[in-house]
Amino acid sequence: MNKKYQVVKGFRDIFPPESFLFWQAEKLAREIFARFGYAEILLPVLESQELFSRSIGADTDIVAKEMFVVPDKKGQNLVLRPEATASVVRAYVEGLAQKGSAKLFYYGPMFRYERPQKGRYRQFWQIGAEAIGYAGPGVDAELLLLLDLFFKDLGLKDISIRLNSLGCKICRPAYREALVKYLKSNESALCEECKRRLETNPLRVLDCKNEACKAVTKNAPSPSAFLCPDCATHFAGLRKLLDRQKLVYQLDDQLVRGLDYYTRTVFEFQAPTGLGAQNAVVGGGRYDDLVEELGGNPTPAIGFALGVERLALLLSEKISEAELLAGPEAFLVFSGEKAYAFAFKLLFALRAAGLFADMALDEPLRSLRSQLKLADKLKSKAALIVGEDELSGKIFNLKLLGSGKELKLDHETLQRVAKVDWEEMKSHLSQPGFVYAGKEYEQALVQNQGLLKLLKIYLHELERQEE
RNA sequence: GUGAGUGUAGCUCAGUGGUAGAGCGCCAGGCUGUGGCCCUGGUGGCCGCGGGUUCGAGCCCCGUCACUCACCCCA
Predict the structure, then answer these.
(1) For strand B, is any atom closer than 7 Å to the CB of A406?
(2) Which nucleotide is nearest to A201 (CA to C1')?
């Protein structure tokens, strides 16, 4: 055997049925975004390194040690994006700003060079939304309500929302100063890491999980006491809107978020369990200075990013594999070469007509028994049996795999039932006392549009066979 | 970058220094044209890799690689 290859560390293949969870999340997100007026932006995965050091902050771990750097042939450093907000803002400034405000969403992979663990990979997928050019708390509320609706529709009820305001460039310095002053007076109690943060990014001390640090930060000055009038008004306005919508959230003084560009509103959606050591499924907030920082006109903005593998992890606890994998409507079972040729034709006729049909295409040809086993394994609803008897006698033979019952129609009955018009039948069926042809199975047939379609195509192929 | 744990069949995992195992899966048969349940048989392995100790190593020792979880950080 040749060398075995394996996926790169921290990267992974997402196999079915897990991939169905991703698809489900993406599908619902797209539906909701459409209703909320967010349009998709397709972004490159590669950006210039500077874009992220400028936006996320040169001192953050993401920029300092977690970027996948790709040197290009001209010697400039490109980077696999660690997040997409910077990309969206870059794209906005470059190609959208002249049109005014924009509500955008994206879906795609992000890359961070971290040690992988549960709920954290080097390539991970994010669904995100950004509203650029909106100043009031209205869009803040819109995004939070959008997410709330999203989680409710997915049936995830244990998600809690944490909310805070970090102030702006006018009021944050004062808060920062007060915080540093307080922390310095308690410096001896802080962990080594936090002593360093005190110099580089004191707000992050509030985020520390170390118990000793938590004890200190518990009594640290709260940012809300330092908000300037504009920031206070914005935050109060947001809370009023959320309260009016009866959205449940928790104010959290300690919530600071890791990226430098955040201003005013910041939020996180957290799951109590199921994500390993992680708890955030969504993180987001305002970044009112970022557009200007990246070369645009001063433009307020807000956005969020949702971790899809973390969401999938939560969904996998709720949804069984059986629910994810839908079996074929009909599995074609054949006996003999002649029947194989016929079934093969029928297979594609059914598929062309929109039905999920399947059959065993591997050689040597499988036995009837083996085919039925396969049909069962694939969770097929029914097995359409095509053999010498069926072909010569023009018989329709469908075995319902749930009950094990067989539906056998002779040629004459087949032709009669195939003439039934579905739309007409449907209107008749709604009338009380309606019984078609007095035969139970025929009524069962006409009540199932998929089955009727199957039957018609079967008959069509059967009769074409004679020509 | 740091720490801990785990590497044996396709998957999940047993395995006292002495012949390489089970369950599940897969294939076939029992039932030559009828799935699930059951029974029988079959398929399947450089025991992660390299070295050492030993008459003898899946097991002990050293190294190395990979994976997992956690720290850190974040979605």
Answers:
(1) yes
(2) B73
All domains of chain A, ordered by start, with CATH?
A: 18-171+227-316 (3.30.930.10), 326-464 (3.40.50.800)
Cβ contact A307:A269 at 8 Å: no
pLDDT tens figures, A108-125? 999 999 999 999 999 999
Question: How many Cα atoms are found within 13 Å in the side-chain-facing hemisphere of A348?
Answer: 6
Q: Which helix (H) or strand (E) holds A394?
A: none
Separation in Å: B70 C1' and A243 CA:
38
Q: What is the rounded distance in angstroms from the CA atom of residue A110 to the CA atom of residue A14?
A: 15
Q: How many beta carbons lie within 10 A of that of residue A106, not counting itself?
A: 21
Residues 142-181 of A with CB under 7 A from strand B: none
How far are the Cα atoms of A5, A15, A121, A207, A457 from residue A186, in angstroms, in the given order?
Answer: 52, 50, 36, 16, 80
Protein-proximal positions, strand B, CB < 7 A: 1-3, 26-29, 31-36, 66-75
Which nucleotide C1' is nearest A404 CA?
Answer: B35
Q: Residue A274 CA to B73 C1' — how many Å?
A: 19
Asked whether residue A408, judged by its CB, lies under 7 Å from any atom of the DNA or RNA strand B, the reply is no
Give the mean model confidence (pLDDT) for residues A35-49: 97
DSSP H/E element including A212 = helix A211-217
Q: Closest residue to B69 by CA to C1' distance?
A: A117
Task: Using the structure block, give the residue that is written with the tokens 């962990």.
Answer: A191
In this structure, is the CB of residue A111 within 7 Å of any atom belonging to strand B?
no
Are the C-beta atoms of residues A198 and A190 closer than 8 Å to each other? yes
How many Cβ atoms from other residues are within 10 Å of residue A34's Cβ? Answer: 12
Distance between CA atoms of A80 and A348, rounded to whole angstroms?
Answer: 42
Residue A333 half-sphere exposure, CB side, CA atoms within 13 Å? 24
Q: Measured between alpha carbons, how far is A207 from A190 in angstroms, rounded to an integer?
A: 12
The nucleotide closest to A121 (CA, C1' atoms): B75
What is the pLDDT, as a whole number, of residue A304?
A: 98
A314-343 pLDDT, tens digit per residue, is: 998 888 776 787 889 999 999 988 999 999
Residue nearest to nucleotide B33 (CA to C1'): A368
C1’ B21 / CA A116, Å: 34
Q: A65-82: string of b/e by CB count within 10 Å (b at 16+)?
A: eebeeeeeeeeeebbbbb
Strand ranges of the sheet holding A357-359, from the earlier edge strand across to the other edge: A357-359, A330-334, A382-386, A396-400, A406-409
